[in-house]
Amino acid sequence: MATVELTKENFDQVVSDNDFVLIDFWASWCGPCRQFGPVYEAASERHDDLVFAKVDTEAQQELAAAFEIRSIPTLMIVRENVAIFSQPGALPEAALEDVIGQARALDMDEVRKSVEEANKAQ
């Protein structure tokens, strides 16, 4: 499956219409981003049940700012409208597969419960 280019215009729809979205925040001038790109693209081919998206931080500065992206590449995973993972750095293939496996294994009912409790505590 090809990656989806996210913009401020389509971001909300793509994330809300899909239960599991991986987002690569990147820029064309970034060496580690160019290194991670083929790894990310290959993973999108292996996991055709998931949505793999990319945000060009140069073209979509508002999105990058909204998610407080300070370092690229940054990988974010959103499941059922909850950001469950966000980490800067180019992951090697094995690490990316491990992160995807861990994200798949999460009990989203428990995650939502934890989020609710954290919000109440504030």
Automatic annotation (TrEMBL):
<keyword id="KW-0676">Redox-active center</keyword>
<dbReference type="InterPro" id="IPR036249">
    <property type="entry name" value="Thioredoxin-like_sf"/>
</dbReference>
<comment type="similarity">
    <text>Belongs to the thioredoxin family.</text>
</comment>
<dbReference type="InterPro" id="IPR013766">
    <property type="entry name" value="Thioredoxin_domain"/>
</dbReference>
<feature type="domain" description="Thioredoxin">
    <location>
        <begin position="1"/>
        <end position="105"/>
    </location>
</feature>
<keyword id="KW-1015">Disulfide bond</keyword>
<dbReference type="Pfam" id="PF00085">
    <property type="entry name" value="Thioredoxin"/>
</dbReference>
<dbReference type="InterPro" id="IPR017937">
    <property type="entry name" value="Thioredoxin_CS"/>
</dbReference>
<keyword id="KW-0249">Electron transport</keyword>
<keyword id="KW-0813">Transport</keyword>
<dbReference type="InterPro" id="IPR005746">
    <property type="entry name" value="Thioredoxin"/>
</dbReference>
<protein>
    <recommendedName>
        <fullName>Thioredoxin</fullName>
    </recommendedName>
</protein>
